[in-house]
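Reviewers of the previous submission asked for a worked example of the structure-prediction workflow described in the proposal, so we include one complete record here. The input consisted solely of the amino acid sequence. No template or homolog information was supplied to the procedure at any stage.
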Amino acid sequence: MDELLERAPGEGIILAAHDTVTGGTAGLIRRLSEAGVSLPVVVTADSFTINDVVDAITDGAMDCLLLPLEMNTLARRLQRVSAAAGPLVELRRRQIDARICINQLSRREREVLECLVAGKANKLIARDLDISPRTVEIHRANMMNKLGAGHAAAAVRLWMDAQLGAQIMPVAVSATPLLHSQTPAPISIAHTQAAARAHMPSAHLLRCA
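From that input alone, the workflow returned the following structure tokens.
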């Protein structure tokens, strides 16, 4: 995990081994988000229960793949994941950027933003925070500048984006592997890498203790 984050990829798909991910899929996605990585995550395992799949998808995984992986099946599934992941990746990217911006705010600037989100005018904010209206104006101007927001609506949108994410549930590309009784023939890592280069989006294989 540390090696991946040191060279955080800007595109591709992350394949994560289900039984080695500390904190589960939610913990993995949270750590990736904290590092600014918004790529889709696919969970792999030798076997899945229905509860495993539900938990992984609820926690933010795009799909679940049974091991061992058959080359053509892997290529097709990752292509489908890549096509379906676009809106989710964009949403996570916005969310990460919004959180980075809001984390730059001081405590008082954040309080002013939260009051602004609640629809309060400067005079009411001043009364609630027990400061002068002029001080509210100063904090508000500083807050807007740090957020790069030209108007109040843009600041509110950033705050809303920053609140999203942890509870976002993507739609699984398919649960087809769970329904197959036939075990696919295993393939070598070299063949998998060759297929990835020739036929599918880049896949980052992740085993994290």
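The two ends are 8 Å apart (CA to CA). We consider this example representative of the routine output the project will generate in years two and three.
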